[in-house]
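hey m, so remember when u said the tokens were messed up on ur end? i reran from scratch. heres the input so u can diff it against urs
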Amino acid sequence: MTEQAYQPTERRPIQSREKRWSKAVAHWLATHGVSPNAISIAGMLACAAAGVALALTPRVESTIAERALWLAAAVLVPLRLLGNMFDGMVAVETGRASPVGELYNEIPDRVADFATLAGLGYAAGGSSPTLGYLAASLAIFTAYVRAQGKAAGARSEFCGPMAKQHRMMVVTAVALFMAVAPAVWRVRIGDAVSGGWGIPALALLVINVGCVVTVWRRLARIAWTLRGGAAA
């Protein structure tokens, strides 16, 4: 009897999967023998590099160098999201989807979350390491809630308002803003002695609040489903 190929039970809803360009890229990757797991690792490494770039922004003396680091982060972070999309598409197209592949899909994501958000916590512009570490922890917790819900018998909950793609969009927008905006646009809230909170810190605050709401929503939807209702 022929062994049936593994089929992933649930996939994060990504509209770009259905675009012609994404299907063409996924087909090219598949036909050139690129491993889905290698794509997952590449996405993680891109975010690790982005986190390093963000953390280095206050350590360079040249304004041009600082802006270049912000721009590098703005390019590297979206590469993680592209990797998250293409690893699954290539796995399905090549028939290489597997339980091990799901580990490669999940674990690098948690490393990427931590590296990016902790890096933003150390970034220039009145940011805060504490807010960065808190955001990283809450981001990982949102994924933990989703995984626990699935293990308990509910479906995977990918709802926001601060799911993975939303967090990365905020970081990308901040990095791009800091890379191109005039210095006078880099507003700070707070006194000059403490340095105040700049755009990166405010973005981390938004991410933290959004993650708390996301955890609450996911828990509510999971509980509803486990009690026998449909997802809210």
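this time it looks ok to me. Helices lie at 20-31, 36-56, 63-94, 99-121, 129-152, 164-180, 199-226. if urs says something different then somethings off w ur setup not the seq
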